[in-house]
Specification:
TolA/TonB C-terminal domain; alpha+beta; four-stranded mixed beta sheet
């Protein structure tokens, strides 16, 4: 299992970050292609001064830290990289778009490294808490003269960037800090491990009735603890209620994750092509853009038309009912996701 993960992480380090940024920085080169001793030295250099390190290099450092077993360091660097990437994309609007854009390259780094680091980190609540605490104390707004690693338009003023960074940091830390509190509870942690083991097990044993029953019981335990404590976790979210005389919190089922960053768009397993009605007027657009909500099992449960025409709603709906996607895993747990798709009518 560890060998497979190491190969996955190594593939993410094969050069996209350096190629994208076209940098000859010694630390970046040592992180990606140095000897083990050089990689360890470069990793320590990044950890000593992470405030001036671009997101591409933070991702690389996270992968190196994971490979050498420095789990808390790997978690801190991964989350710092994700946060800095969001801050930098907002502060330094990239000129490049499409498949070679910084957003695409960041997603290509974040997803495989996150798939290796996150599940391992959550199996070690102390390291997870330490990583989150270090991100909380870290300033994601880089100093003057900083290079994000891509060609960009006019940068936002420092104060505006700082305000945006504080908001992005709060958005990132709120669910993570909730999971820290939940995983610190032994009953929740044991249920989490049971469910994670079940979801990551691809052997025939995973389908045995007793394993399925244990996984369902673990889900119920986690959801009950989240609801009882009012902490947003994997099954519930805490939302602000409508204005009331007394402050209170309402707990509802968790909202789907939006695809992007560490959440990859799920692979479509079954596709049925919508058919153009024979009487469809020629001036009705044949291209429809939808936003889909796919549940934990990979079934389409909701669809919103972002661009289309009422005349094609019925054939689109008939086709969507038959689409099936591979389940999306977050930290080894299936989660619902939202993402856009473009459909060309035939």
């Amino acid at each position: 299992m560890r060998t497979g993960r190491a190969l996955l992480v190594a593939a993410a380090l094969a050069g996209p970050a350096i190629a994208a940024a076209q940098r000859a920085d010694d630390v970046a080169e040592k992180l990606s292609s140095g000897t083990p001793a050089e990689q360890a030295q470069a990793l320590d250099a990044v950890l000593a001064r992470p405030e001036g390190v671009a997101s591409f290099d933070l991702f690389q450092a996270a992968a190196v830290a994971y490979q050498v077993g420095r789990l808390e360091d790997a978690g801190f660097l991964l989350y710092a990289a994700q946060l800095r990437a969001r801050v930098d994309l907002d502060r330094f609007p990239p000129r490049e778009q499409g498949g070679d854009s910084p957003e695409a390259l960041i997603a290509g780094l974040s997803m495989p490294i996150g798939e290796a680091v996150n599940p391992a980190l959550m199996r070690n609540p102390r390291a997870f808490e330490g990583a989150i605490g270090r991100v909380r104390a870290w300033d994601p707004v880089a100093p003057e003269g900083y290079d994000p690693g891509w060609d960009h338009g006019p940068a936002k003023p420092a104060q505006e960037a700082k305000t945006a960074a504080e908001r992005l940091k709060r958005e990132m830390l709120l669910p993570a800090e909730g999971m820290v509190r939940l995983l610190a509870r032994p009953e929740y942690f044991e249920a989490f491990k049971t469910l994670q083991d079940f979801n990551r097990d691809t052997s025939p044993d995973a389908k045995k009735p007793e394993r399925v029953a244990a996984a369902k019981a673990a889900e119920r335990t986690m959801a009950e603890i989240e609801k009882r404590l009012g902490i947003a976790g994997l099954y519930t979210r805490v939302v602000a209620p409508a204005a009331t005389p007394k402050p209170s919190r309402a707990v509802t089922m968790i909202e789907p994750r939006r695809v992007g960053g560490a959440i990859a768009q799920p692979k479509r397993l079954n596709f049925v092509q919508p058919r153009v009605p024979s009487n469809l007027p020629a001036d009705v657009p044949r291209t429809v853009i939808l936003e889909l909500t796919v549940d934990e099992r990979g079934r389409v449960v909701e669809a919103s038309v972002l661009r289309g025409h009422p005349a094609v709603d019925k054939p689109i709906a008939e086709a969507l009912r038959q689409w099936v996607y591979a389940p999306t895993l977050e930290n080894g747990i299936p989660v619902p996701v939202i993402f856009p798709v473009t459909v060309k009518m035939r």
